[in-house]
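Sat 14:20. Reprocessing the chain from the morning session after the first attempt stalled halfway. Input below, unchanged.
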Amino acid sequence: MIAKKIGDTLYRRAYGRVRNGAQLAELARDPHPVGQRLSDAVAAVLANSFEPAERAAFDRVEELRASLQASRDEIGVLDYGAGESTETRSAEEMARGRSVTTTVGAICRNASKPPRWARLLFSIVREVKPQRCVELGTSLGLSAAYQASALQLNGSGRLDTLEGAPEVAERARAHLAGLSLPAEVTTGRFQDTLPPLLEHGSPIDYAFVDGHHDHDATLAYFEQLMPWLNDDAILVFDDVAWSPGMAAAWRRIREDERVGVAVDLFKVGVCAVRTTGGGGHPTYRIALD
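Finished this time. Tokens:
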């Protein structure tokens, strides 16, 4: 029985590698201008293929993560999100926010992107080389640190990251400043802070949507971002399998005719907008875990 289980596991892993390889190859051949770059970004994470300077950047952020995870400092959080996946907060409740007291360590363990997924964000930014980037959902700033580190290694670009909880935003601001990264934290509800951010400045090349795991809100952010996106801009949506509502929202987004190519990584969804034409487009499914 044990031998059979081991054999089944090895078979699934081998099959997964073959399937991933086929999907990556097809993505690389996609006619969309960023297909090859997205394929290269995902492949780098799967193969753990990074340059020494990139690994040094990871080490700096992971050193910060370790210290945050060990922290017992209490911190107040004003949560404007959807709560747990089993909750059904109304739009009014999410707009008001819910105040809770927790620890820095708990936030880091529960809300920050794990290293492998953070490296995905880093790798996409490295490959696509965006100039103006936006993140919705800063938390303690670890995912922002990965993305801003990629911009720094690229030699240009800036990240604006939005966080609803004032005390958490202040911590993130200090963390990013301590790492000397090109990122700025804006505090407040997304519905208040995102419009002026979009209206002032150049078009958006890259956006990471996190922090508000709600069907209607996710679709609203997609629509809100679309008019302000540059040609071939990349949108990354976190936790697309977190709830039935999030799965439905991601399905709507990846099937939208304004999307030119979509990559479903099961937990995270990535898409690039279409510059011309309309109609159908493929969705590439790749298991990152």
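The domain at 2-64+111-285 is CATH 3.40.50.150 (Rossmann fold).
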